[in-house]
Amino acid sequence: MRRRVLAFICGLCIAPALFAGVVHVDAQSEVERLQAEIAEKNDRLADIEAEIAQFEAALNEVGAEKETLQKAINQLDLERKKIQADIAYTENRISSTDLEINKLTLEINDTERTIGRSEEAIKEILRTMYTAENDSMIELLLRNDNLAEAWDEFESLETVKNSMRAKVQELSDLKLALETKREENTEKRSSLVQLKDQYSDQNSILANNRANTSELLSATQNEEATYQAMLREREAAREQLLQEVRNIESELQFILDPNTIPTPGTAVFRWPLDSVRITQYFGYTKFALSGAYSGNAHNGVDFGAPVGTKIYAPLTGTIRNVGNTDLVPGCYSWGQWLLIDHPNGLSSMFAHLSATAVQPGQKVKTGDVVGYVGNTGYSTGPHLHYTLYVTDAVQVMRFNEFKSVTGCGAALSPFAAVEGYMDPLDFLPAI
């Protein structure tokens, strides 16, 4: 009996790998190889980020130039290169995430094997301990030649018990580590799905850019005079549309109850972009008073950003609707837009998007990608327009539901009484 107990003690000492959860040599080698590939991908990501920053700087420079046909063509060309860089960045992120998933899978499989071996070893030791513990002290004395040998055997049993406690704790720690790795793997796979959706969105934006370039060159036949005439027609159509919207919204009635929304000055939202550059403020701005909106106030905040820049949900909420007024020819309005209802009584509307990444009814969390900056609808350049409504005040309807003759026909759009508009900056963090 004593020899059997001592043999188990020796086994515990010379085979700690059964319990420590170390990775096997082959698995470890593969994990190291994947880790090296991930590091290489991360280096490539840093290079692409530098390229994207250069394109963004060039786009800002072009955006400040006078509105000409050549400027429009140069801008589309730069946007295309920047979007291609964005796509390359996403491709590398997808590849890197794939590698990380493979690495985690290897580690999970190896940990599961180690847990299996550890459990079997512990079961065997428990069976031995159970047999040993059924022996009384008298039986120990009778089995041994003297008291000293009996006492040695008793101490050996106590050593096994203490070792068992330690090994059971190690096994518990190993299982906890396994659960952590499983959670990491789940998160990585979720991230991969989002990246693949983003990759698809960015390719759609690239296709739109190419179509817009072809359309511009076809419509103008590369003539500056033709391009300027197009701009004047768009401006006239925009003025007519603004008047339509003002007439519609003047008929809407709403009385704001301040208790239903957060107190202005409270930062309840995050910024919808990573980099904040405000190009137009809410209200009676200098640009608005210059006649840009026929002397009316600007109903949102504009953020300058290149086409394809990711837009984030400023707070959790539900997508009430998405729309694209460009589907109706001659409707120089929001272009692609989306509306999020937040649980705090406010609703965010983003407009002039190049693509939306959400569907009506979808739940979003703070920081989720909901769309991409664009230059759709009536826009004087790539930017994000952010209108903030009181949720109870805004409704989404078609223009022809308000009036039969309209420049936008069946195009969907948010509408609200003047009292239903809020300044987004009153609820965003300080710059």
Question: How would you characterize this protein structure?
Answer:
With 431 residues, this protein is an alpha+beta fold. The protein has two domains: 2-204, no CATH class; 234-427, Glucose Permease (Domain IIA), CATH 2.70.70. The chain has nine helices and twelve strands. It has helices spanning 2-14, 17-20, 25-63, 69-133, 137-143, 147-220, 224-250, 286-292, 399-402, and strands spanning 278-280, 301-304, 310-312, 317-324, 336-341, 346-356, 363-364, 369-373, 383-390, 395-398, 412-415, 421-422. Strands 1, 2, 3, 4, 5, 6, 7, 8, 9 and 12 form a ten-stranded antiparallel sheet that branches. A hairpin with a 4-residue loop joins strand 5 (336-341) and strand 6. The longest helix is centred in the middle third of the chain and has 74 residues, at 147-220.
Keywords:
431 residues, single chain, 56% helix, 2 domains, Glucose Permease (Domain IIA), alpha+beta, two-stranded antiparallel sheet, 12 strands
